[in-house]
Amino acid sequence: MKQLIERLQKTSHLEKDEWLALLNAENDELRQYAAELAREVRHSHYGKKVYIRGLIEFTNYCKNNCLYCGIRAGNPNAERYRLTKEQILSCCKTGWELGFRTFVLQGGEDPHFTDEVLCDIVQQIKKEYPECAVTLSVGERSRDSYQALFDAGADRYLLRHETANKAHYQSLHPENLTLENRMECLQNLKEIGFQVGCGFMVGSPNQTNECIAEDLLFLEKFQPHMVGIGPFIPHHDTPFAKEPSGNVEKTLYLLSLIRLLLPKVLLPATTALGTLRHDGREQGILAGANVVMPNLSPTDVREQYSLYDNKICTGDEAAECRYCMQRRIESVGYEIEESRGDHISKQ
Ligand code: SAM
Ligand code: FES
């Protein structure tokens, strides 16, 4: 199996049965070996730098009903909020002062944020902070809408594909949401010129290693600039309330394999990883991740952006999160980098 990992490092390619074999054989030794090679690759492209992105969770209204998600439309217990343009700009101001040069605007699919409303916000951020990158993560929209957002100045877009397996996709989503449309959105975003991120949850209900092998094949084919993966964590008000959480070790193993598959990819150590294990994000960095996304959302709404139970950092001010993250990164021998942190191909 170690030879397979070495071949992955050399060629950035494996066949489906080889992925499956690697996933099925996962153990401490293989995980450590994959992490070692992943760090080598990561150091050759990004050194010991870890990019920071300021995450602004600007609305928890959502018209969708993804079965895993705590802010799904069908959750009557979710207390809804949406930030005003002024509040979003105030988060950016705080973020700018703390050294952030990327703002990630994430939210549910909230019909309030029409192209007109969202483009105006993006334009204003880019006007006030021309040196910053704006990343959007607001779900599925039309090609024209993505184009308008790009023309307004948005640089990057995160849209996890969630799973590359059709049957699995349908088991996680209501019928009106299809893998086909998700993939079409990703293709459109790429063609328009965004730096694009896809990704998936590790250990979502009904996920098999076969599904993950298909995810990895999709990553190779799509060649995203960013990949967001994190463990699935149940939320008590969703149909998946009783499902078990994803596995931290497996998430770390996958971070390493993804680093070997896409050597230059921007790969976050996610909040979900830090939620399941106190040093999850630090371990993520040691496994090959090179991005962290501290929270810039106003403290009084943090609790309400509840995708899963026990989410960390809900009580902390932006500055606390920023410096907490710095300490964590430095504790494992890495350093925070305050530039925009574009993908190497787009610098
Ligand atoms: N609405 C946008 C979208 O669908 O891409 C962005 C917001 S959505 C909440 C962001 C991501 O959170 C999803 O792509 C999903 O992978 C992740 N997520 C949702 N519920 C989760 C859960 N219970 N555990 C872990 N991650 C979850
Ligand atoms: Fe829309 Fe989760 S169901 S953000």
SS-based class: alpha/beta
SSE arrangement, N to C:
HHHEEHEHEHEHHEHEHHHEHHE
Total helical segments: 14
User: How would a textbook summarize the main sheet?
Assistant: 6 strands, parallel
Low-confidence stretches: none
**What is the typical, i.e. mean, pLDDT?**
97
Strand content: 5-15%
Computed over alpha carbons, the radius of gyration is 19 Å
Number of strands: 9
Shape: globular
**Helical fraction:** 40-55%
- Strands of the widest sheet, in order across it, are 2-3-4-5-6-7
End-to-end Cα distance, whole Å, is 36 Å
Bound molecules: S-adenosylmethionine, FE2/S2 (inorganic) cluster
What do these coordinates show?
It is a single chain. It contains 14 helices and nine strands. The protein has 347 residues and is α/β, with parallel strands linked by helices. A six-stranded parallel beta sheet has the order 2-3-4-5-6-7. The two termini are 36 Å apart. FE2/S2 (inorganic) cluster binds at residues 62, 64, 66, 69, 71-72, 108-109. The site of S-adenosylmethionine has 19 residues, from loops.
